[in-house]
Amino acid sequence: MKGLFITFEGIDGSGKSTQATLLKNRLSQMHYPVVFTKEPGGTALGGKIRKILLNEDMNPVSEFLLFASDRREHIEKVIRPSLLNGKIVISDRFTDSSLVYQGFGRGVSLNFIRQVHQYILKGLKPDLTFIIDVPPEVGIERIHKKDRIEREGIDFLRRIRKGYIEISKSDERFVIVNGTGTPEKLNDFIWKVTLRRLRNGQER
Ligand code: TYD
């Protein structure tokens, strides 16, 4: 695969979408070919799945499988073709969100989630994953119009944050970013890490 696949993760209200956007803008300004996308809802069908996910109550396993359906569409229609075209793909959330929200947050078997991911990913995985880390109290303060998942409350966000810290130990692709600094400071740090990765990646 020729491109570079970067994902942004973090609890609700962490500021990850802002950071994903700032990185995309900076890469575009430097004339890097960049594709910006998100989960849930990175495709037309995914947009419909997103509406169901954010509004309907359901069993946690069903919830995971819907996220997985959205993800498979997203991989096949957007992510893989863009990477094959040599693009830098930035996704606001990806597989790690399911591991922590549905796994650590709602108790769906981590093993089951990993197996489904293995099946739908077919060898694809992010090259670099930024986890924007903020205390749950800070995250909750920043969320204004809450969707179904965001209404879960502070204990849920605590489990999610713990989950991110836990999984970050499993792979070198993870970079934990202290999300309590100013957006500009965070962006500068993320920019440096990305540039280093782009330069190293040229040997691949
Ligand atoms: P997101 O689009 O990041 O939130 P918003 O655009 O409203 O800021 O994500 C929507 C919600 O979906 C968020 O609470 C996290 C949750 N989510 C999961 O629970 N599992 C997943 O696999 C993904 C991708 C998101």
Main beta-sheet annotation: 5 strands, parallel
Name the overall outline: globular
Proportion of strand residues: 5-15%
Distance separating the two termini: 9 Å
Name the helix and strand elements from N-terminus to C-terminus, one letter apiece. Answer: EHEHHEHHEHHEH
Number of helices: 8
- Compute the gyration radius: what is it? 16 Å
Strand element count: 5
Q: Which percent bin holds the helix content? A: 55-70%
Structural commentary:
- By secondary structure, this protein is of the alpha/beta class.
- It is built from 8 helices and 5 strands.
- It has a 5-stranded parallel sheet with strand order 2-3-1-4-5, with helices on both faces.
- Helix 1 crosses helix 8 and helix 3 (60-84) packs parallel to helix 5 (110-121).
- The radius of gyration is 16 Å and the shape is globular.
- The model has no long low-confidence stretch (mean pLDDT 94).
- Thymidine-5'-diphosphate (TYD) binds next to helix 4.
What brief labels describe this structure?
globular; five-stranded parallel sheet; 204 residues; 5 strands; 8 helices; alpha/beta
Topology:
Layout: E1 4-10, H1 16-29, E2 34-38, H2 44-55, H3 60-84, E3 88-92, H4 95-105, H5 110-121, E4 128-133, H6 136-142, H7 154-168, E5 174-178, H8 183-201
Parallel strand pairs: 1-3, 1-4, 2-3, 4-5
Helix pairs in contact: 1-8, 2-3, 3-5, 4-5, 4-7, 6-7
The chain binds thymidine-5'-diphosphate.
